[in-house]
Amino acid sequence: AQSVTQLGSHVSVSEGALVLLRCNYSSSVPPYLFWYVQYPNQGLQLLLKYTSAATLVKGINGFEAEFKKSETSFHLTKPSAHMSDAAEYFCAVSDRGGTGGFKTIFGAGTRLFVKA
Amino acid sequence: KAGVTQTPRYLIKTRGQQVTLSCSPISGHRSVSWYQQTPGQGLQFLFEYFSETQRNKGNFPGRFSGRQFSNSRSEMNVSTLELGDSALYLCASSSQGVANYGYTFGSGTRLTVV
After folding, report:
1. Which one of A95, B45, B62, B88 has the lowest number of neighbouring Cβ atoms within 10 Å?
2. In this structure, are residues A76 and A49 in contact, taking their beta carbons and an 8 Å threshold?
3. CB contact under 8 A, A106 and B42
4. CB neighbours of residue B68 within 10 Å
């Protein structure tokens, strides 16, 4: 069965500092992996996705993530945090459901705080 | 290109009542999934519809049901509401076929049960 663990429910960084949000997954088959961002009172927005084409994935807003199969990790990074990055971030793993289609499981989320 | 539209945005219901939430996916997307989001449980998968058929289902009681119409619009229904059903209900559409390209989410319906 697939699962996702996000290490740290809250992460605080200073503006301009490196952002690192950690995600480890478990899946019985090569998975699809995603990062989503959620701003207050909104739905989730897709930041980036890993679909086995390349291990380093670049997304929107300067974020990127690296798929490491040996570590079953898919950590999200951004070289320099901006105040507008403050939001909640969700890692997700997806593989084929039993009756076709895909079943996507989300991590518990990490709230990112950016200090001026 | 219009996004995923969920209606209504906010809803207040009384215990024991039933509620229907609506979702219009992105044009051309045939897969619609529903999630319940709460502070304690996070994002929990409810079900997925594809071409009017429920294709995957999460671990929710039978009080939670859904359907999809021929134009891919979807509704979910919760009967006999309980206080614990208070949550943000998110609809996500996808063009899933052979590969998974991820979801486009709506802004959600915030349901409060009193």
Report:
1. B62
2. no
3. yes
4. 24
Q: Give the distance from residue A75's alpha carbon to the nearest chain B alpha carbon, in angstroms.
A: 18
A43/B106 Cβ within 8 A: yes
Only one residue has tokens 């570590």, namely A71
B42 contacts in A (CB within 8 Å)? 106-109
CA distances from B73 to A9, A43, B68, B81 (A): 34, 18, 6, 23
For residues B63 and A99, what is the distance between their CA atoms, to the nearest angstrom? 22
Query: Residue B59 has which token pair?
Result: 């671990």
Q: By the 8 A CB rule, do B14 and B114 touch?
A: yes
At residue A106's C-alpha, the angle toward residues B12 and A94, to 5°, is 125
Residue A67: alpha-carbon gap to chain centroid:
11
B8 preceded by a cis bond (ω within 30 of 0): yes
Length of chain A in terms of residues written: 116
pLDDT digits (tens, 9 = 90+) for B38-82: 998 999 999 999 999 998 889 999 999 999 999 999 999 999 999
pLDDT band at B108 (very low <50, low <70, confident <90, very high): very high
Record: contact B55-A101, CB cut-off 8 A: yes
- Which ranges in A36-110 belong to alpha helices (H)? none
Bridge partners, residue A35, by sequence? A48, A91
